[in-house]
Design goal:
The protein is built from 25 helices and four strands. It is mainly α. It has a single domain, classed as Up-down Bundle (Amino acid/polyamine transporter I), CATH 1.20.1740.10. Strand 3 and strand 4 form a beta hairpin. The chain starts with 12 loop residues before the first helix and ends with a strand.
Length: 564
């Protein structure tokens, strides 16, 4: 997976857009509309708009950083660039967890839709009482995970070539499903009956953004950032591909949500006592069965394999890049960055990701919804460094070539960070505490690694990272004490809790930017335009200098990229 300036494959803009769309249309469309309708009712439509705006703001921050530093898997490296090795490991750890978690959830999605097949063994894959995978369902999900992983293990390039075809098929299936559901009978009364447009209030809408797969669905934008370093013109391709993929994604998801809301039979809605009672294990397939649209059921069952498999092409590649970047910075074993000389795949990194995927499946992967809510919260944490990196680099490297510049960055960057903090809070307690703890646990690991490598002055190394530890601890406290609408104990009343989250997040943003500026001033991030150490000798890795091969400056635009 060599993506140095001299070895770029010259990925075109269309191919990059297809990667983004292919990643956005994974399992999210199969389950997101049903889950969001159950939580927020017709106001789930607003949740999709909020999610798209939020992800769009995050994506534009990463577009500036990614076009200036077109490093494959760069989301795992930007924290190192902006604040030094310790924060780089903490944020890289969070990004890796969020990205690698996408691999098993796609297999879970395919397995849950298999339960809609008209075979006895298929019906036994999911427990109808709670919607969780049974032992046999878990076995099928593990088998699917391993099958896709093995295919990428031998030839990820072969699957990448097929991505455009898979994406077009994945795009066609939801479009046909929307048309068929609307044509079968569209009940406009569903949007006003049983509590009106917002039957469970606006807090439920905000909760749906993070717990029902909305953020999860749009997370495919990361593939554009992580793989955009291989584009012919990253500065133009990355922001255009992001806007194109997210815009098209929003249109299709709104159409899917509208079709689902209008197609549910009013008598079933009444029987369930409202939208909370509309609980489908395989939402669109089960709804199509109720409407006697058997050909749509078959189409959706086919799509349940195509969509997750296509998305996992980018997931497997991106997760491998994350591991390689962490290995390049010295916090993961160096052997994990090894690339097979013939197949070009990072096999040691892929083995690690496979083990992590299996662990998730057997511990928390009981259903798509159970895993999606945790993954969404982890994703939000992985987004935090984007707007902060914009603020840091604007102050420390003002002359760095930026093919794309975030407009009004002085306002939009802190606003985006505050939005991310709110999204983390909306994930609901105790999920916020779980993912915060899972991220902070990387801090003592970083200390052990640095000490074993003989690095002195750990207090100096950790100084630029304390803002993140403090932020996650503070968010956990607010989440635990916050409104009951978001899983808290109700100490903080509704409205006050969100205002406190947003205002405190702005304060943490400026603390984080100052910490990054100081890290640059004292030399923790290297002295060159990328990860270079003294005299351009190579990137600074935990206080030492790596080989120059790990950092390459592209002669055509003087922007750093990396060989991972």
């Amino acid at each position: 997976m060599d993506m140095t300036a001299g070895n770029r494959t010259g990925m075109g803009l269309f191919a990059l857009i297809m990667i983004g769309i292919g990643s956005i249309f994974g399992s999210g469309w199969l389950f997101g509309a049903g889950a969001a309708a159950q939580v927020a009712g017709p106001a789930a439509l607003v949740a999709w708009v909020i999610g798209a705006v939020f992800i769009g703001m995050i994506a534009m921050c990463y577009a500036e950083v990614g076009s200036a530093y077109p490093i494959p898997g760069g989301m795992a490296r930007y924290g190192h660039l902006s604040h030094g090795p310790v924060l780089g490991f903490l944020t890289g750890w969070a990004v890796w967890i969020a990205t690698a978690s996408l691999i098993p959830i796609e297999s879970i999605a395919a397995t849950q839709y298999m339960a809609s097949w008209s075979y006895d063994w298929a019906r036994d894959l999911v427990d109808p009482a709670n919607g969780h995978l049974t032992a046999s369902g878990m076995g099928v999900a593990l088998l699917l995970t391993f099958a896709l992983w093995l295919t990428c293990y031998w030839s990820v390039q072969l699957l990448a070539r097929a991505n455009t075809v898979l994406t077009l098929v994945k795009f066609a299936i939801p479009v046909i499903a929307v048309a068929a559901l609307i044509a079968s009978g569209f009940h406009t009364s569903n949007f006003t009956a049983h509590g009106g447009f917002t039957p469970y209030g606006w807090p439920a809408v905000l909760t749906a953004v993070t717990t029902c797969g909305v953020v999860f669905a749009f997370n495919g934008f990361q593939a554009v950032i992580n793989l955009g370093g291989a584009a012919k013109n990253p500065g133009r391709a990355i922001p255009v591909a992001l806007v194109g993929a997210l815009s098209l994604g929003l249109v299709i998801y709104l159409a899917l949500q509208t079709a689902f809301l209008g197609a549910v039979p009013p008598e079933q809605l009444a029987q369930g006592g409202g939208w909370h009672g509309v609980d489908f294990s395989s939402p669109f397939a089960d709804l199509a069965k109720v409407l006697m649209l058997h050909w749509v059921v078959t189409l959706l069952q086919f799509g349940a394999f195509i969509s997750p498999a296509g998305s996992n092409i980018a997931n497997v590649a991106s997760a491998a890049y994350m591991v390689q970047n962490l290995a390049e910075t010295g916090f993961f074993p160096r052997k994990l960055a090894t690339v097979h000389p013939r197949y070009g795949t990072a096999r040691p990194a892929m083995w690690l990701n496979l083990g992590f995927s299996v662990l998730l499946l057997v511990t928390v992967g009981h259903s798509w919804h159970a895993l999606a809510s945790v993954i969404s919260a982890a994703m939000v944490i992985s987004y935090l460094i984007g707007p902060i990196a914009v603020g840091v680099f604007r102050r420390t490297r003002p002359d760095l070539p930026r093919p794309f510049r975030l407009p009004a960055a002085g306002v939009l960057a802190p606003l985006t960070f505050a939005f991310a903090a709110c999204a983390l809070y909306w994930s609901k307690w105790p999920d916020t505490g779980k993912v915060a703890l899972l991220t902070v646990v990387a801090a003592p690991v970083a200390a052990v690694v640095l000490r074993r490598r003989g690095v002195t002055g750990l207090r100096r190394q950790f100084a630029p990272a304390w803002w993140l530890v403090g932020f996650l601890a503070w968010m956990s406290v607010l989440s635990a004490l916050g409104s009951r609408d978001f899983g808290g104990h109700g100490v903080l009343p509704g409205g006050v809790d969100i205002a406190l989250v947003a205002l405190s997040a702005v304060a943490f943003y400026f603390w984080a930017v100052r910490a990054g500026v100081h890290a640059h001033r004292v030399g923790l991030t290297g002295s060159g335009p990328g990860l270079e150490g003294p005299a351009g000798s190579g990137p600074v890795l935990d206080g030492r200098t790596a080989s120059p091969a790990s950092s390459v400056v592209a002669p055509e635009d003087s922007r750093p990229t990396a060989s991972v």
